[in-house]
Amino acid sequence: MKQIRTVDAVGHVLCHDMTQIIPGKYKGPAFKKGHVVTAQDIPVLLSMGKESLYVWEKTEGMLHEDEAAAVLRDLAMGPHMIASEPSEGKIELRAACDGLFQVNAQALKTINATPQMMIATRFGNTQVKAGDKLAGTRIIPLVIEKEKMDGLVQRTLEVTGGAPVLALRPFVHKKVGIVTTGSEVYHHRIEDQFTPVLLRKLEEYDTELVGHETTDDSYAMTTEAILSLLDAGADV
Predict the structure, then answer these.
(1) Which domains occur in the chain, in start order?
(2) What's this model's pTM, rounded to 2 decimal places?
(3) Integer distance in angstroms from the first to the last C-alpha of the chain?
(4) Tally of CB atoms within 10 A around 119
(5) Per-residue pLDDT tens for 83-92?
(6) Mean pLDDT for the stretch of residues 159-177
């Protein structure tokens, strides 16, 4: 690390937390270790009495934690996802739409088996809503070897074939037809209790009910009902 003038610190990485004290109001870190100083930070730092700062020296072949986190983001992030800004080696990915979230488990294992980094995800093959958190990247040290990140990228892409580790498949609007079978329901001997359950489940997705038919145990009647719903535009 080295000591530099605060006014010259834009773009440099802080080596330690910078404590701010506002009497009677606040005492705590205004800037945390690893923070990259911006032009907007300079007046704040000067108001804290920080005329000089200790910062990391940029070393050839080393990446800051936020730079390395962006490498993990680029490996993981697929279409229909939104990434947060890097902060302390962390980036969050959220769903931009409703859909089916999928994870390449082998590729994820490849990443998480590499020391000093990780990606945590929710379970794959699950339904998600727009805005749901999907995953988070994490680089453990403040700086990490670029060679290590390059090697990770190569190994991961070999597993994925160049595809992202994570995928979000948007739900597609479907027209649905329901055929309830059984002579006991058809002849009203018992109440149809299954169709209401199915309808509630369909409400969770982008679906449109085009028709509901009830048949007895006759193959011919059931076939006719299915064909009728297909003619009415049912996709499923």
Answers:
(1) 2-56 (3.90.105.10), 62-170 (3.90.1150), 174-231 (3.40.980.10)
(2) 0.71
(3) 64
(4) 22
(5) 998 877 889 9
(6) 95
